[in-house]
Structure formats: C-alpha cells, structure tokens
Write a structure and sequence with these properties.
Elements lengths: L1 E10 L2 E11 L4 E5 L6 H9 L6 E8 L2 E2 L5 H6 L2 E3 L7 E5 H16 L6 H15 L9 E2 L5 H15 L3 E5 L7 H14 L5 E5 L13 E6 L2 E6 L1 H10 L6 H6 L1
Parallel strand pairs: 3-10, 3-11, 6-9, 9-10
Antiparallel strand pairs: 1-2, 1-4, 4-5, 7-8, 11-12
Helix pairs in contact: 4-5, 5-6
Bound molecules: adenosine-5'-diphosphate (ADP) and magnesium ion (MG) (2 copies).
GO molecular function: ATP binding; ATP hydrolysis activity
Family: Belongs to the ABC transporter superfamily. Ycf16 family.
Keywords: ATP-binding, Nucleotide-binding
C-alpha cells in the first residue's frame, strides 16, 4: 500500500528526515514513536504534502502511484487521510456541507455515484453516534468554537465518512484526555479491516493501550532505528529513549 524508500526532507535548510524507510501493507496498523523533535510530525506533513514540507530525495509509492507527484487533493482522492489536515476552522461553512462535498468529491473520483442529501445525512448521523458528538455539530461551522476534544471527535467522524485506505493520525502533541483518546482508538478500531491501513504517530505509549498495533517503529534523528511488535512500545514505556544514545538525546 505504502512503500517509503530512503526519504530525506529538510526544513529551512536543516535536514530533518535522513533516509527513512517504511513499508505498510493493506490492513496493517503501524505505530510510530520516538523522542521529541525526531521528525515524526514532519514525516506526516511530507506525506500529506503540507506547504513547506517537501521531500529532498527518496520515494513514496502509494497504491502504485508516486505520492510526491500528486497534489494534496489528489492524495486525498487516492485514499490518503491525514488527521491534522482538518482541524482548521471554517466559519460559515456547515460541518455537514463540508463533509458531504469532500465525500462526494472522492466518490466521484472513484467512479461511485454521489450520495444524496438524505443518504449522506443517514451516514453522518451514524458517524456522530459512533464518536459521541451531538447531531447539532453537523449544523455548526467547521470546527468553529469546537473544544479540543470536539475537534478530535469531528476529525475521527470525517475519517469514518471518507472511508480512506490509509489513515495517518498524529497524536503526539495534542494533549488528549482519556475520553478523547478512547474516541480516537474506537474510531481506528471500528475502521480496521483487512484492507484499511493506519499510521498512528504517538509520543507516549498510552494510546497503544487502546489500539493494538501490528508493528511499532522508533523514529529517532530522522530515521527508523528500531522496529518490532506491540511489545516494543511497552519496552519504551519502561526504558524511555535513553538507549538510543547520544544522538537521539541531542534531538530531544
Ligand atoms: P516530532 O514530531 O518527532 O516531535 P517534528 O517533526 O515536529 O518532530 O520536528 C522535527 C524537527 O524539525 C525539530 O527539530 C523541529 O524543530 C524542526 N521543525 C519542524 N517544523 C519546523 C518548521 N516549520 N520550521 C523549522 N523547524 C521545524
Ligand atoms: Mg514535536
Ligand atoms: Mg510531532
């Protein structure tokens, strides 16, 4: 599904990603952990095509296409979902209208008929229930005046409605309370199937108490330095990142 080879990326002339490799197959959940400043968020931004975050070299094949050749919207249409792409506030545009447009734009690209207003409403109501957001949130402006936890619920609702095939969730800096953490985890777990894949970026192990990853990777100083199964996250919880040595400590 996603194959990243020797990815290098710099910001303002400083190299942040220094030869990163990662392979993700359909249906897999990969957690990426690592010390502060290691480049975890940068990886998500480079994959999402955020302004100012471009790859210097290396490749990322996504479902057979070269991800870096695609525009941001094309990446979404190809089935990539990036959680941090959405918490922007768009006052005056209803949440419901915004999501319906996004969902139908993607359906059109896939050759599916657009959902009618009533079909979409039905799905949106179910999704609201799933993330425990009152229906009134569908009528409000996109993220307008939403609390942090409500934005998070809304984001997971978008993920559910968009039915992407690769979801990248960056939870490292969001300071989620336990309720919001469980919303994220339930959202991921309910959308897990044999085909949909996830990259869950997290600084702490606690999210992984609720999401059982297939693989855990430690990103330090711009590279994946260690990979393992869920037990690696438990190990990190106990030992911290000191074992990474001086280089990683510097980056922290
Ligand atoms: P992590 O998510 O692992 O904590 P980041 O990817 O956020 O790490 O940051 C990696 C490094 O890149 C840090 O040293 C950070 O200061 C730097 N960095 C990230 N974004 C910018 C930016 N917009 N301008 C300058 N430096 C940045
Ligand atoms: Mg950081
Ligand atoms: Mg980060």
């Amino acid at each position: 599904m996603l194959s990243i080879k020797d990815l290098h990326a710099s910001i303002d002339g400083k190299e942040i990603l220094k030869g990163l490799n990662l392979d993700i197959k359909p249906g897999e959940v990969h957690a990426i952990m690592g010390p502060n400043g290691a480049g975890k968020s940068t990886l998500g931004y480079v994959l999402s095509g955020r302004d100012g975050y471009e790859a210097d070299s290396g490749t990322a094949q996504f479902n057979g296409a070269d991800l870096f050749d695609l525009e941001v919207e094309e990446r979404a249409q190809a089935g990539l979902f990036l959680a941090f792409q959405y918490p922007v506030e768009i006052p005056g545009v209803s949440n419901m209208e915004f999501m319906k447009e996004s969902v139908n734009a993607i359906r059109e690209k896939r050759g599916d008929d657009p959902l009618s207003a009533s079909e979409f409403l039905k799905k949106a109501k179910e999704a609201c229930k799933q993330v425990d957001l009152p229906l009134a949130f569908l009528k409000r402006g996109v993220n307008e005046g939403f609390s942090g936890g409500e934005k998070k619920r809304n984001e997971i609702m978008q993920m559910i409605l968009l039915e992407p095939n690769l979801c990248i969730l960056d939870e490292s800096d969001s300071g989620l309370d336990v309720d919001a953490l469980q919303v994220v985890a339930n959202g991921v777990n309910s959308q897990r199937d044999g085909k949909r894949s996830f990259i869950v970026v997290t600084h702490y192990q606690r999210l992984l108490d609720y999401i059982e990853p297939d693989y855990v990777h430690i990103l330090a100083d711009g590279k994946i330095v260690k990979s393992g199964d869920a037990s690696l996250a438990k190990e990190v919880e106990k030992t911290g990142y000191a074992w990474l040595g001086a280089k990683a400590e510097e980056a922290d």
